[in-house]
Amino acid sequence: MNRSIFLALALCGSVARAQPGEPAPPPPVPPAVDPTAAAYDAAFRALVEGRAAEAAAAFDQIAATTTDPQRAASARELARLGHELVLKNARYVLGPADVVSKADLEAEDHDDGRTTFIAMTTLWSLYGGIVLVDDLNIDDYRAGIVTVAASTAVGLLGSYYGSKGKRITGAMGDAYALGMVFGMANAGLLVEPVGLSGSSETIDTTILVAGAAGGLAGMAYGDQVSPTRGQVSFAGTLGILGFASTGLALGITQPNTSTDSYLAAMAGGTDLGLAAGLVLGRDLDWSVSRGRIITLGTLLGGLSGAAAGALIVGDHPSDSDARLVAATTLAGVWGGFALTTYLTRDMNPDRRYIHYGPTVSFAPMPVRAGAGAAVVGAF
Question: Does the reported pTM lie above 0.70?
């Protein structure tokens, strides 16, 4: 019975398709192929890949030549989008493998600041171990080594775990290091003029405490003022220039100055240069890379000036020859600073002073008679 039904249905289907005496229906006509389809796909790929000007020009051409009204409408809209992206200098975000976002740069900056904090604290703790050996009069060699190693380990592990999860930007880390170095330098220069040079224990402890105080002051400055790393580097360079300029100028003009006055004046010149750098560098757009190169150029200029003076005066310099060496060194310090500042003028500024254009993200979106794009971003 089932077989009979199947055969009846098959016969009915055959009769429905072609009745005797009737002409066969014409075959379906395939749709016309739009010659701009390939060009549309190529223009779309150019737009997604960030070649907005090229894509806009291609979509303009497609909109003017296509015979499909829907494709022409899509091309006109995508061309308008391309022209707007070009005018606004839009920046594409194509994925983490291609573009590093500003948030990623800031996160990296925070890690760098924490690393600087840990490194400087560890070095300070190593010096603290040496001071502890001196203060406790530890004469045993093995006990002294263990004390220094233990102090260094406490500094490293304490700073590492103590700073975990804390906000320490790169500028804060640099300001911490700057404050620590200049704090210890000030203590070393002033310990004798203020009458604290009676014993090595007193000198070492004073320098150690001054370093900690300077580091904390620098950290607070970096947190409250939020300078760039280039601005912190600039302040350090002017502090070096203040130190060198004061000492060398006294050596040229007043070589017979007493030691205490000489050291006190150099400490004052150092602090004056540092303060000038913090004030004058508030709006400076230097990157940290440029700042470091200029610092190195300043040091190299001083060494070059000293070498030039030594070559001029020979092996047995007189008092006047010593003044000449001081003068060439001073000229070299400032010359190195000026020259490297000029030579690095084309370096990129700090990212705080870089204008980030609009960020645009694309996602493919199917539309009738062609492909489209969903655009997300700020314009």
Answer: no
